Amino acid sequence: MSTGPETGAFALHLGKIAAALDRFVEFEHPDALVNADVWRKQLGGPLPSDGAGIDAVIAELTDVLIPNGARISEPGFSGFITTGPTTAPVAAATASAIAAPQRYTMNAFNFVEETSLLWLAELAGLGPHMKGVYVSGGSVANLVALGAARQHAYEAVGIDPGAEGLNGLSPVIYTSSEAHHTIQRAAGVLGLGRSAVRFVPIDERQRMRPDALEEMMAADRAAGLLPVAVAAAAGTTNTGAIDPLAALGDIARSHGVWFHVDGAYGLLGRLDERVADRFAGLEHADSVIVDPHKWLAAPVGVAAAFVRDRAILHRAFTQGPAEYLEGSFVAEDDVHNSLDSMGIPYGDFAVELSAPARGVQVWAIIRELGVSGIREFIVHDNDLARRVTTAARDHPRLEALIEPELSIACFRYRPPNQSPAGLNGLNERILRRLVRETAFVPSATVVAGSYAIRPCYINRRSTIADVDGMVEAVVRIGDDESGRSAAPAI
Ligand SMILES: *Cc1c(COP(=O)(O)O)cnc(C)c1O
């Protein structure tokens, strides 16, 4: 009954999974209601003492798990900054899981690991001097990049923090109040402390203010603190704001301080020529991160961290000598077999050793679409955010809360005579009902104190109809809610 990993088994079983996935993304499944009781019965239970066999596992995957998966791939999903992956990178991920279960050894997947990093750097406007390493997400990419910054700052005062640890200095990382919170977590993990992160005030477009940065840095230096990095955002998570990279990079450089650019979400936005100039100054960056699992439709688990020289990553993150790894190297011109060499030692450039060959996913989507195809959908996504904003501006009961920089829009329902205090609760209820009752699933944020409905368009399946449908649904539910909540004043 059960088949093992012998010849032909992958095709047989993955064929069934593929058919179930097709039904899932075509929404042929009945609307899955979260039913933890059913899951407990069908998927949970006590630790199995005997195996049910591969056929049972495949059937449970196709019949129970896949139809009860997450709504993130749906065209109406525009929540958070996450998306359903498309076919080419999923196919590549599946292929590498089987054909190259590790990213090391001299094999074709290891080769495209580096090729894809070079392509991704060029696509992101970084230039060939920036060398990368893949990690599991933007959180780890920020950690790795700031690990390089820590190495740089401490080496300059005669300490090797990777080898010796920190030494009683008071480090500071500058970022804006809109920065992703993984900057703080990275500071904590790196031993700098979350309290080392100082928040530079922002301007009216939610961008870090260079004048404020300059002032804070000068004061901190005079007080004997050790500036470790300026961490700017190329596309903030809340609103897609792009910090003024050129001015911030100049200041960081004039102080000899590491300049990090967090482009996890927004960096590929530069492919849209209408906004490309907002990324000027990227060339000053000492480190840059970008998440192919955000705007490049890869399955979750793929981010890249780039630095000028991976040797600093090696100093920051090496495990130290390991006989069991290095024993397998032979001279480069003597490599005949994939196991003759480990290939590029990515496992020494960050915090993971065993890791999937992720680069093939990036290689696959760039190969599939080319720069022109990728540019086309980036422009389309930026257009969708502008369309929401225009609709909100034109409608008497909607209000646009930001001018989109990239593919994030922020707006709210605002009926006449509603007190500002009531608006936040009203829009929160609208969002809850959108998620529960409609096919449109944006998320929310707070912009200058106002609760905002916040669609972020990176989903390759989203169309103009999804934008218009969402806006109409917000008005319909808003009218309904504000009618209902017109309780007599007390
Ligand atoms: C999403 C995001 C992160 C974190 O990335 P993950 O891949 O979710 O770990 C960091 N910075 C920014 C600007 C982001 O948008």
Class of secondary structure makeup: alpha/beta
List each distinct ligand once: pyridoxal-5'-phosphate
**Percent of residues in helical segments?**
40-55%
CATH class of the domain at 88-366: Alpha Beta
β-strand amount: 5-15%
What's the topology here?
Elements: H1 9-25, H2 36-43, H3 54-65, E1 77-78, H4 87-99, H5 108-123, E2 131-135, H6 138-155, H7 161-164, E3 171-176, H8 182-189, E4 197-200, H9 210-222, E5 226-233, H10 245-254, E6 258-262, E7 287-290, H11 292-295, E8 303-307, H12 310-317, H13 323-326, H14 359-394, E9 398-400, E10 411-413, H15 420-437, E11 441-447, E12 450-454, H16 464-484
Parallel strand pairs: 1-11, 3-4, 3-5, 5-6, 6-7
Antiparallel strand pairs: 2-8, 7-8, 9-10, 11-12
Give structural notes.
The strands form three sheets. This protein has a seven-stranded mixed β-sheet, sandwiched between helices. It contains 16 helices and twelve strands. The chain starts with 8 loop residues before the first helix and ends in a 6-residue tail after the last helix. Among the domains are: 10-69, no CATH class; 88-366, Aspartate Aminotransferase, domain 2. It is of the alpha/beta class. Bound molecules: pyridoxal-5'-phosphate. Residues 81, 137-139, 142, 180, 182, 233, 237, 262, 264-265, 291, 303 line the site of pyridoxal-5'-phosphate.
In short:
This protein is of the alpha/beta class and 490 residues long. The protein has helices at residues 9-25, 36-43, 54-65, 87-99, 108-123, 138-155, 161-164, 182-189, 210-222, 245-254, 292-295, 310-317, 323-326, 359-394, 420-437, 464-484; strands spanning 77-78, 131-135, 171-176, 197-200, 226-233, 258-262, 287-290, 303-307, 398-400, 411-413, 441-447, 450-454. 43% of the residues lie in helices and 12% in strands.
